[in-house]
Structure formats: structure tokens, C-alpha cells
Amino acid sequence: MSPGAEPIRIIRGPGGEVEAEGRFDSLAADILRHAGFLFEPALRGHWIRLPFDMGRDWENQHATWTAEMLTAARYRVHLALDLRPGAPESSRPLTPAMTAQAPPGRRPRR
């Protein structure tokens, strides 16, 4: 990812769906897929979104987890404020994760 590149934006779309927008290389696309994002064919490329009707809490957790993984991989990420679980009014920037973490709802292996 080049330093001047636009950030990957993770937002809640007009229909309530969680979408990812921006330019993605293969690593960013793999991270999005790993986090549960679907790549649907569209007229102008791909529509990248989380599955529908999983509930706001699940969507917020996965959107935040995705943003943390992308940030840890040194991508610039903009996560919409309404997607941060428990703190929709928070404007603090994401900090890179220093250790691998299990996805939300999954227990880590021992």
C-alpha cells in the first residue's frame, strides 16, 4: 500500500448494510474475506459487504475487527463511527493490534 493511497472505508450503507469501499490489493481482499465480507459482482466491479441480517452488534464487531486487522497490516482505514461497538460517539483512531486475536465470538485455541 503506498503512503498517499486513499483509506479503505468501512461504512453502513443507505440500506443498513455494512460495506467496504476503496482500492484493494490481494492482501486487503484476503483480510476482508477472512473477516466475513462477501464479494458480490456488480456493474462497476464488486460490491463488498457483510452478510445481511446478522444483527447490528455482530456487524459492528466484525467491522471493527476487520478495521483492526487492516490497520495491523499497515493499511489506512476509516471506520464509520456508528460501526464501533459500545462507543458510537467515540472518535479515537484505531491502534494497530500487536498480537493475533481470535475473531469475535470465537474462543482462542490453547
Q: Write down how many β-strands occur, each being a DSSP E stretch of 2 or more residues.
A: 5
Q: pLDDT under 50 segments (min length 5)?
A: 87-99
Quote the average pLDDT.
81
Major sheet characteristics: 5 strands, mixed
Order of helices and strands: EEHEEHE
| Beta strand % | 15-25%
Helix content: 10-25%
Quickly give the structural class.
alpha+beta
Distance between the termini: 34 Å
Strand order of the largest sheet: 3-4-2-1-5
Gyration radius (Cα, Å) is 14 Å
3D shape: globular
Can you count the helices? 2
Overall description:
- By secondary structure, the chain is of the alpha+beta class.
- Helices cover 24% and strands 20% of the residues.
- The protein has helices at 26-34, 56-72; strands spanning 8-12, 18-21, 38-42, 45-49, 77-79.
- A five-stranded mixed beta sheet has the order 3-4-2-1-5, with helices on one face.
- A hairpin with a 5-residue loop joins strand 1 and strand 2.
- It is globular.
- The model is unreliable at 87-99 (pLDDT under 50).
Describe the protein's topology:
Elements (H helix, E strand, L loop, with lengths): L7 E5 L5 E4 L4 H9 L3 E5 L2 E5 L6 H17 L4 E3 L31
Parallel strand pairs: 1-5
Antiparallel strand pairs: 1-2, 2-4, 3-4
Put the structure in a nutshell.
With 110 residues, the chain is α+β, with helices and mostly antiparallel strands.
